[in-house]
Every structure is written in structure tokens, then in C-alpha cells.
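Aim 2 progress. For DUF1489 family protein, the working sequence is reproduced below.
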Amino acid sequence: MPLHMTKIAYSAESPADLRAWLESHEAEARLTTRYLPKRHEEMAGGSLYWIYEHALIGRSPILGFEQRDDGRWWIRLAPRLIPVATKPKRAHQGWRYLKDEDAPRDLGQNENAGDAVPPKLARELAKLGLV
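Predicted C-alpha cells for this construct:
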């Protein structure tokens, strides 16, 4: 089972905005990080799960890691956003690991993000211990 990571979609104004940014890259999208994750080898076949409004809303497959000339690292991603069942997730700085068994499922072809609980409602339900 691959290891995944989570990251806040900090510059995205909406999930559609995040999707547009990812899809604007032809071969791969790149994010910069200061350090190579210690468990990067376990992430082969894993994904970066995006946090928007305190909820996991989608994922982008991780293609690998590449060191930049300045010593930082690129997280290389497939340029697509795969919608997942909304799952509450607290905001954090940088990235965090996510085990495969804790990752939300992908939405099916007959499902769309509108079928999932909206992130704000999911957050409130989580505070009440209902999800």
C-alpha cells in the first residue's frame, strides 16, 4: 500500500480553481518543498491529497521528487485533480503523511463532488463527532 501526503490548496479560491491550475500544466505540475520527505520511497504510487476549507476534496497522483538547483525539492504531480469523498482534515503548514487506509475513496463515475458533504458542513459534523 502506498503512502500519501496532504497539503493545503493555499492559493486556490475554489476546487475548480485548483483543477484549472493543475490542468494548465501539460506533463506535470510541480510544488516546491524545502526538504525531501524521509519516507519518499514509500510514496511510489501514492497521491497528494488536497485540503480545501478544512476538508480533503481531491487528489493528484505523485510522479516523483526532483531536487532543484537551489537545494529545494519539487513534488512532481500528474496534472489532474481526482475528486474524492469529502473528509474533514485540519489545516496544517507544509505537508503531512497520510496512510492508505486513512485516505478517502475516489468518487465514482456516477458521483460528483456535489453528492459529497460540503467541506464546511463536514467540518461542523466532525466537531460534533458525527462523522
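Residues 4-127 form one domain. This observation will guide construct design in the next reporting period.
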